[in-house]
Fold this protein.
Amino acid sequence: MEGLKILSTGYYPGEKVVTNTDFEGKIDTSDEWITTRTGIKRRHFSSHSSAYLAIEAARQAVRDIDLSKISLIICATMTPENATPSNACLVQEALGLQEQSIMCFDVNAACSGFVYALEIAKSLLVNKDQYALVIGSEQLSRIVDFTDRSTCILFGDGAGAVVAKKADGLFVSYNDASGTALPLVASFEKDDPYLHMQGQEVFKFATKVIVKSINEVLQRAQMTLDDVDYVVCHQANLRIIQYVYKKLKSSPDKFFTNLDEYGNTSAASIPMALAEMNEKGLLKEGMKIIVVGFGGGLTWGATLMEW
Ligand code: UT7
């Protein structure tokens, strides 16, 4: 089977750490409420744009990579620095690759963006000598209403990046969307530029589509969850992930989480998790992992691949 081999990873969380207690006194909330309802303890905010965060994560991911082989840069984001140029083009410039023949563009599939981008990278890479730089990057603090206690405690800023190439190996994907704007909207309206979410609706949607997406890729690969080493879900809420592993009769050890430290970083959460797992030496050659995204659009999807 033709798959995608991830050669390297990098990540860059926003530079300012904000704890749950930092919100106390500013809005009507508590560390206890946020921890028990979400599992989040801290998040990182940045004064820099998502392009800057993408560049920093990309610099780490390419540090031991032959840059001349990069033929594709994709940045998944719903908070791009500009309408144009794309974050991906700004990464190309920052890496000094202006003269190189590279297709560069951003993808907006909200929190599913990185999973979509992996599938796109696999489709666009022509041969095994070409590399794709695939990034998820968000500056969500830019679109969060800090007076809305039901959303402002959830999100964080950061970026994760991978360099991948085509290779023989497992790559089974399932990506989908439902074209339902509510219950998760962030518009470009000048008088209301904030993200609005009906939390309970999104919670129900998330648990349903994560289970569906995991089962879908397992079925397509004719495998069971026992054959898989790690599942990396979009990091939105620990209770969502707990629901999923209980429903699938699996164990917490298989489901990596780092949302306690970073909160929900939308399209950045999965590549940041992969990079952190890689840094900790958790990912070994040949391991089977599932990445699962879900979010605004509504969008969702999963990929089962070999490390
Ligand atoms: O990346 C996109 C995907 N997003 C998600 O996956 C988010 C999915 N949804 C969730 O994670 C949860 O629904 C939330 C964490 C957003 C909310 O948790 P919940 O258990 O669903 O709470 P709720 O919305 O039912 O609210 C329960 C109560 C309400 O008060 P009343 O009406 O019962 O008096 C809220 O006003 O909790 C209140 N509340 C808070 N209280 C203290 C909401 N936010 C807070 C807060 N601190 N920060």
User: Anything to note?
Assistant: The chain has a mean pLDDT of 97. The pocket of oxa(dethia)-CoA is lined by residues 29, 33-34, 37-38, 111, 149-150, 153, 199-200, 202-203, 206, 236-237, 240, 264, 266, 295 (CB under 6 Å). The two ends are 14 Å apart (CA to CA).
